[in-house]
Write a structure and sequence with these properties.
Elements lengths: L2 E2 L3 E5 L4 E6 L11 H15 L6 E6 L10 H4 L7 H19 L5 E5 L2 E3 L1 H7 L3 E5 L3 E3 L13 H9 L1 H10 L5 H7 L4 E3 L4 H13 L5 H9 L6 H19 L4 H13 L4 H16 L2 H24 L8 E4 L2 H13 L4 E4 L3 H20 L5 H9 L1 E4 L10 E4 L5 H12 L7 E4 L6 H5 L8 E6 L8 E6 L5 H13 L3 E6 L6 H17 L4 H11 L5 H8 L1 H14 L1 H4 L6 H7 L13 E4 L5 E4 L3 H6 L11 H21 L6 H12 L8 H8 L1 H10 L11 H9 L6
Parallel strand pairs: 3-4, 4-5, 5-7, 6-8, 7-9, 10-11, 10-13, 11-12, 13-14, 14-15, 16-17
Antiparallel strand pairs: 1-2, 2-3, 15-16, 18-19
Helix pairs in contact: 1-3, 3-12, 4-5, 5-6, 5-9, 6-10, 6-11, 10-11, 11-12, 13-19, 13-28, 14-15, 15-16, 20-27, 21-27, 23-25, 29-30, 30-31
Catalytic activity: a (3S)-3-hydroxyacyl-CoA + NAD(+) = a 3-oxoacyl-CoA + NADH + H(+)
EC number: 4.2.1.17
Keywords: Fatty acid metabolism, Isomerase, Lipid degradation, Lipid metabolism, Lyase, Multifunctional enzyme, NAD, Oxidoreductase
Length: 715
């Protein structure tokens, strides 16, 4: 034994090879935390002082190589100044440089995933091989950061600047075929042969059959591009990336700038450039928001895992009501391996549901995400039926009939008599109270809401809605099933609109007020899209469906009349009365034409302004700031109410619900983090500017208390 620590061991094996093995104690994965970095420094020093070492093989004792840096630990360092963060990064890089400077050849055998700092560790060695099941990449941009352990320096010199820009700016997990094609690894090996063949390749380097010194020198030198080539590569990339990010995500651009600046420097100077770029990003609000989302996501996963302990398995599911939504739910369940019955009252509905599932599966085959045989297997997991005959052994049922309480109550009562006493019944309702739907059920403890978002296959969120009588086992079972379907479940308590629609409709109310007071709806759309939403409120209503929105708005107005019941006729009312339902009938706030790909294309319809004239005050110009404030304040206050009333457990879950459910701009982190970025005292002061607009703009007492005490949601 050359070295033994809490995260790393070094043993001398055959042929003078030192095996440096990452195996972090008391953790299921390897990651770069302080313990691992300290161990690595000590382990490399031990190797340097051992004359018997002829080569170093880097391996993992776990199913993964290294998942990356422990952001929950290193995030604390981001509270320091830019200079201090850059110095901390430089200190960490001393360890990776020491590996790269060892006087013997080095090789990393990549098992499982090597991401972020884990892949940067791989890049510090002379050779890299990966198993057929491994993935590698630098996903730091997804946290609003860029690589900081040498990724922007070594990767361009290993795979070329063009490829490195793609890898770093896309932040993807790259499969073996791509990694080998681009030159990020030297070989791809069957998992069961990885160790054996890695040792053989390293032995070849020790024997002088592989020129590892030349490879190392190239990594440590300037980038081999002349001035013109550099300008073409980096300037073109900056222009393209700026167009994609629309100025909202600074990390990819900063990464390109750092690579460009470091191109003419050797390793040590180039690493200084990287450290400064990393430190600059670490202090941005975007990085703070995206790291916050990562931590929120970890919390959701932990809570979902805790529910697994109480959950019953869903080995067979059912959906009532086929059509587009039912077909989407059936597709998602079948795709992820859970057989599902799809029941409807007529053949036409069944066919519509099957067509939807078939279309979605065919698209996966077309995009080479699935083989035709697997598509057949998935389709076979969907069993259409017009009767309840096979419902006796179903574990979980999703009711997805029309959004009408009378119809739903009738169907649910009928269903309850057809399933076993242990079957969990859920309703895919977007607004109707779960307690109302449970009133006539014999087993309300087995009933709750399971709100999917449309389109089901694309929207990651499922709201799991707990009624007053819902058992924890039922909640746990549905959370587990949602997870099994590949969705992110958030558990909320019952109220009109639950979480997502309850906070979305005050946002629409803000829009209604703006239009009523003379704002141009197209300008409102543009401003909110610039703010970061994928689409503005008018366009979103067209996509959701004006009739759907109008119905939901009535439910919300009845549930919260003090602030959600308009005392004037709204633009949505006008569209609804004129049967302009949006994309579904090709006319709403905009009109829709079919583009070359068969998708609806939004087109401006100037006639809409005349249609809105009777409800609009004298047209006036609103500043972007006014539009943002009048749109965002109602939504944010409603989120605060949901937290205070216990509709949602934590600000973390509230923010994730908005990100996944309505497309809240990720770089702003969610409504709670947005309020934190403004500062609660300032936010309340802005609200008070609009006091004359009524309760929709009135902060809660708790918000005023937070403002007075200097409190925030995330500390």
């Amino acid at each position: 034994m050359i070295y033994e620590g809490k995260a790393i061991t070094v043993n001398l094996i055959e042929g003078g090879i030192a095996e440096l093995k990452f195996d972090l104690q008391d953790d299921s994965v390897n990651k770069f935390n302080r313990v691992t970095l300290e161990d690595l420094q000590a382990a490399v020093a031990a190797v340097q002082g051992n004359a018997d070492v002829k080569g170093v093989l880097v391996t993992s004792g776990k199913d993964v190589f290294i998942v990356g840096a422990d952001i929950t630990e290193f995030g604390e360092a981001f509270k320091n100044s830019e200079e201090e963060i850059a110095a901390w990064v430089a200190e960490a890089n001393v360890v990776f440089n020491a590996i790269e400077d060892l006087p013997v050849p080095t090789l990393t055998a990549i098992k499982g995933i090597a991401l972020g700092g884990g892949f940067e560790m791989c890049l510090s060695t002379d050779l890299r091989v990966m198993s057929e099941a491994a993935k590698v990449g630098l996903p730091e941009v997804k946290l609003g950061l860029m690589p900081g352990f040498g990724g922007t320096v070594r990767l361009p010199r290993v795979i070329g600047a063009d490829n490195a820009i793609e890898w770093i700016c896309m932040g993807g997990e790259n499969k073996p075929e791509k990694a080998l094609k681009d030159g990020a690894v030297d070989a791809v090996i069957a998992a069961d042969k990885l160790r054996e063949q890695s040792i053989a390749m390293l032995q070849s380097a020790i024997n002088g059959e592989i020129n590892w010194q030349a490879r190392r020198e190239e990594k440590k030198s300037k980038l081999k591009l002349n001035a013109m080539e550099q300008m073409m590569v980096f300037e073109t990339a900056k222009g393209f990336v700026a167009g994609q990010t629309k100025g909202h995500y600074p990390a990819p651009i900063q990464a390109i700038k750092s690579m460009q600046k470091a191109a003419n420097f050797d390793r040590d100077k180039a690493l200084d450039v990287e450290a400064k770029g990393f430190a600059k990003l670490a202090k941005t609000s975007e990085s703070n928001a995206l790291i916050g989302l990562f931590i929120n996501d970890q919390l959701l996963k932990k809570k979902a895992k805790d529910y697994d302990k109480q959950a019953k398995d869903t080995n067979k599911a059912a959906v009532l009501g086929a059509g587009i939504m039912g077909g989407g739910i059936a597709y998602q369940s079948a795709l992820k391996g859970t057989p599902i019955l799809m029941k409807d009252i007529n053949e036409a509905g069944i066919q519509l549901g099957l067509d939807e599932a078939n279309k979605l599966l065919a698209k996966r085959v077309e995009k080479k995400k699935m083989k035709a045989a697997k598509m057949g297997e998935a389709l076979n997991r969907i069993r259409p039926t017009l009767s309840y005959g096979d419902f006796g052994d179903v574990d979980t049922v999703v009711e997805a009939v029309v959004e009408n309480p009378k119809v739903k109550k009738m169907v649910l009562a009928e269903l309850e008599d057809q399933v076993s006493e242990d079957t969990i019944i859920t309703s895919n309702t977007s607004t109707i109270s779960i307690d109302l739907l449970a009133e006539d059920l014999k087993r309300p403890e087995n009933f709750l809401g399971m709100h999917f978002f449309n389109p089901v296959h694309m929207m990651p969120l499922v709201e799991v809605i707990r009624g007053k009588k819902t058992s924890e086992e039922a909640v746990a079972t549905v959370v587990s099933y949602a997870k099994k379907m590949g969705k992110t479940p958030i558990v909320v308590n019952d109220c009109p609109g639950f979480l997502v629609n309850r906070v979305l409709f005050p946002y629409f109310a803000g829009f209604a007020g703006l239009v009523n007071h003379g704002a141009d709806f197209q300008k409102v759309d543009k401003v909110m899209e610039k703010f970061g939403f994928p689409m503005g409120p008018a366009y979103l209503l067209d996509v959701v469906g004006i009739d759907t929105g109008h119905h939901a708005n009535e439910v919300m107005a009845e549930g919260f009349p003090d602030r959600m019941k308009a005392d004037f006729k709204t633009a949505m009312d006008v569209m609804y009365e004129l049967e302009r339902y949006g994309q579904k009938n090709s006319k709403g706030f905009y009109v829709y034409e079919t583009d070359k790909k068969g998708k609806p294309k939004k087109v401006v319809d100037e006639a809409v302004y005349d249609l809105l004239k009777p409800i609009v005050a004298e047209t006036r110009e609103f500043t972007d700031e006014e539009i943002i404030e009048r749109m965002m304040i109602p939504m944010c206050i409603e989120v605060a109410r949901c937290i205070e009333e216990g509709i949602v457990d934590t600000p973390n879950e509230a923010d994730m619900g908005l990100i996944f459910g309505i497309g809240f701009p990720p770089f702003r982190g969610g409504a709670c983090r947005y309020m934190d970025s403004v500062g609660m005292a300032k936010f309340v002061e802005i609200c008070d500017k609009y006091a004359e607009l009524g309760n929709l703009y009135k902060p809660t007492d708790r918000m005023r208390e937070m403002a007075a005490n200097g409190e925030s949601y995330f500390g």
